[in-house]
Amino acid sequence: MSFLLIAEQVLNGLQFGVMLFLMAAGLTLIFGVMGLINLAHGSLYMVGAFAAAAVAGATGSFLLALIAALAAAALAGAIVEMVVIRRLYAAPHLDQVLATFALILIFSEGTRFVFGSFPLFLDIPDALSGPVTLPGGIEYPLYRLSLIGAGLAVAAGLWFLTARTRIGIQIRAGENDREMIAALGVDISKLYTLVFALGAGLAGLAGALVGAIQSVQVGMGEPVLILAFVVIVIGGIGSIKGAFIGALLVGLTDTLGGVFLPELFKLFMAPDTATQTGSALASMAIYILMSLVLIWRPSGLFGVRL
Amino acid sequence: MKKLLLATASAALMASAAMAEVKVGMITTLSGGGAGLGIDVRDGFMLAIEQSGRDDIEVVIEDDQRKPDIAVQLADKMIQSEKVDVLTGIIWSNLAMAVVPASVAQGKFYLSPNAGPSALAGKGCHENYFNVAWQNDNLHEAAGAYANTAGYKNSFILAPNYPAGKDALTGYKRFFGGDLAGEVYTKLGQTDYAAEIAQIRASGADSVFFFLPGGMGISFLKQYADSGVDLPVVGPAFSFDQGILQAVGDAALGVVNTSQWNKDIDNPTNAAFVESFSAKYGRLPSLYASQGFDTANLLISAVDKADVSDADAFRAALEAAEFDSTRGAFKFGPNHHPVQTIYAREVIKEGEVYTNKILGPALEDHADAYAGACKM
Predict the structure, then answer these.
(1) Which of B191, B221, B239, B246 best tests the A interface by mutation, with the highest count of A CBs <10 A?
(2) Which end of chain A is less crowded, N or C, counting CB atoms within 10 A of the terminal residue's CB?
(3) Nearest-Cα residue of chain B relative to residue A217
(4) Do domains B2-136+265-339 and B138-261+342-373 have the same CATH topology?
(5) What pLDDT is attached to residue A184?
(6) In the prediction, which pLDDT does B16 show?
């Protein structure tokens, strides 16, 4: 177990964490501001990836593909909010879950209808491909390093938006007391559409960024969605800061647990059983982390409301 | 003249009415993850039925959505209300395990175009169950055999943590003679392999074997190509199949994979199959399409010889397997699984299309490891 391996795995965990943050930020904003459980958030991630793959295929430009992903997912989010979600704010959570689950099916089969059943091709741009050597001799893919940078930049941008701008003040006010800010003359339905589109756009961006190193296919969003829910529960529902810390915790736990737990078990078990026990335990690691956080802080690390 | 034509036509009609109709129930995955496989099996199967020009074989097709409970419901419906004689189509081993034993126990025939779990090849074999594709371990065993001939001494092997993943690594190890630099089980459905690739880098291996079907394999190959690790990779055909290769792109070029079929296997049936499939569906056929096509032709050969209501005669006709396979000569072993040559093939680019070419046989006339345990 060398230093190089550990350093590379920490970078992997960070990269996974910041991408989870892009998903979790939208989810937590939407839940915090509108009180809505949006299961279809993973579908918006998929929409972003497909839009990016289609545009990259047609134009060959990765930058245009990213813009298309952001725009397509934000647009899809805005339309969904105006057509479906708007009717659900007053409804109980179970109705919201049911309706947004229906949206998952509609998005998945709709995407299959347009793009077919076979995975699409989206590759990383030439300028960012291949490994680079970091100080200390760590060889690491440049694209993953760029993902960490992009994720941190978006996190900083979101912090600036919520903490320093007028719209951010409205969003935070909306989280605390939505009747009151409506009474103060803020157009609440426009604000909701905007927040939903923002969250959707971030999910779409994550889908496109990650789609370039993974596979662009129908149903790609759902596994990430589950992790994003774990992240916002750990971080505290409605908190962007919580989503950031939670995403990094989940990313690091998942990555490092998957590698080091089997190694740990090998110290006192046969390699075969150690691998299997370690892998099994590693896939539970983030849920164990979530339980521990919830025992310690029932409303999450930075949650305010119960 | 007109009268004569009419008479011939009605005579033909009467003849076909007198012939026993065979009703086939196809349960396969047409929506959700992995639908590409089911669609290819269906298209290959229906192409063979269409080319035979027969009207005495009726096929009912249903989508199992890759869910065992739905597959079971569909099988019950097909057996009880549709009264099918033969079932086929299932892609996934867990669905096959839910459907096949109950169906064959009710006297139906089951022809598997894909799933070949070990449980149905050994002790759990059945006289009415035929697998036209393979026993699940076959391609992995061939990959192990290829690794020996390629001179690899120290492999890093990985597969998802589920029954087929464990079978895959067992199959590879059964034939690979070298050491293992590492053996890793990943999460099923995992899409990020950065952690595993870092382990491969640190392991000192001289080769990598992986079994990661579907999107998992696409993710792994793209990330592996970008990581700067340049050890040779071997794997079963699943991640290098025609449907998936275009999504992997350059990352797959040059990778050696094992398969019992490829589009350049040189026989007239295969050439005609590749040409007619491409013409009809506008894409190159995959492994799965060839399996669907062979399954249908096996069925047609049996219908020609025997009436399906005479189960013993129909079974004997299936066992004889006298049809022209896309793989060339085709024969069943004692447990009704194919005894066949498995090839090593290499991913190449033909114009703009990624595809495979055969390097040579990895295992010849290979039977599965479970046949001995089968008592029919």
Answers:
(1) B191
(2) C
(3) B215
(4) yes
(5) 86
(6) 45
Residues of chain A contacting B33 with CB distance shorter than 8 Å: 217-219
SS (H, E, C) A228-285: HHHHHHHHCCCCHHHHHHHHHHHHHHHHHHHHHHHHHHHCCCCHHHHHHHHHHHHHHH
The 8 Å CB, 24+ separation contacts for B145-151 are B145/B175, B145/B176, B145/B362, B145/B363, B146/B234, B146/B256, B146/B258, B146/B344, B146/B362, B147/B172, B147/B176, B147/B178, B147/B207, B147/B209, B147/B234, B148/B175, B148/B176, B148/B177, B148/B178, B149/B362, B150/B207, B150/B232, B150/B234, B150/B256
Q: What is the pLDDT, as a whole number, of residue A158?
A: 92
Q: How confident is the model at residue B65 (pLDDT cuts 50, 70, 90)?
A: confident
CA of B237 vs chain A CAs: smallest distance (Å): 16
CATH domain B138-261+342-373 topology: Rossmann fold (3.40.50)
When pLDDT is averaged across residues A265-288 and rounded to a whole number, the result is 83
- Identity of residue A143: Y
Residue of A nearest to B201 (CA): A5
Q: CB distance from A130 to chain B under 8 Å?
A: yes
Q: CB of A131 within 8 Å of any CB in chain B?
A: yes
Residue A133 three-state SS:
strand
- Token pair listed for B324: 């022209």
**A16/B192 touch (CB, cutoff 8 Å), yes or no:** yes
Please state the domain extents for chain A.
Answer: 3-296
Say yes or no to pLDDT of B18 above 60.
no
CA-nearest residue to A221 within chain B is B191
Cβ-based contacts of A143 with chain B (< 8 Å): 226
Q: Does A119 touch chain B (CB under 8 A)?
A: yes
Separation in Å, CA of B164 to nearest CA in chain A: 14
User: Across the interface, do A258 and B195 touch by the CB < 8 Å criterion?
Assistant: yes
The pLDDT score that the predictor gives to residue B20 is: 52
Residue B48 pLDDT exceeds 50:
yes
Q: pLDDT tens digit string along B250-308?
A: 889 999 999 999 999 999 999 999 999 999 999 999 999 999 999 999 999 999 999 99
Query: With a CB-CB cutoff of 8 Å, which residues 246-275 of chain B face chain A?
Result: 246-250
Per-residue model confidence as pLDDT tens digits over A63-102? 999 999 999 999 999 999 999 998 988 889 899 999 999 9
Indicate the domain borders of chain B.
2-136+265-339, 138-261+342-373
Distance CA B238, CA B105 (A): 31
Q: What pLDDT is attached to residue A129? A: 86
Does the A3-296 domain belong in CATH 1.10.150? no
Taking the CA of residue B27 and the nearest CA in chain A, the distance in Å comes to: 17
Q: Does any CB of chain A come closer than 8 Å to the CB of residue B188?
A: no
Residue B259, classed as helix, strand or coil, is strand
Backbone angles phi, psi at A114, to 5 degrees: -80, -45
Query: Is the pLDDT assigned to residue A53 strictly greater than 50?
Result: yes
Helix (H, G, I), strand (E, B) or coil at A196: helix
Average pLDDT over residues A11-16: 93
Of A138-152, A286-300, B14-28, B244-258, the least confident? B14-28
Check CB contact of A133 with chain B, cutoff 8 Å: no
Determine contact: B179 vs chain A, CB below 8 A.
Answer: no
At residue A1, the 3 state secondary structure works out as coil
CB atoms A131 and B184 under 8 Å? no
Name the residue facing A223 among B189, B214, B247 (closest C-beta): B189
Specify the fold of B2-136+265-339: Rossmann fold (3.40.50)
Distances A117 to A217, B118, B257, B273, B279 between C-alpha atoms, Å: 8, 29, 23, 22, 19
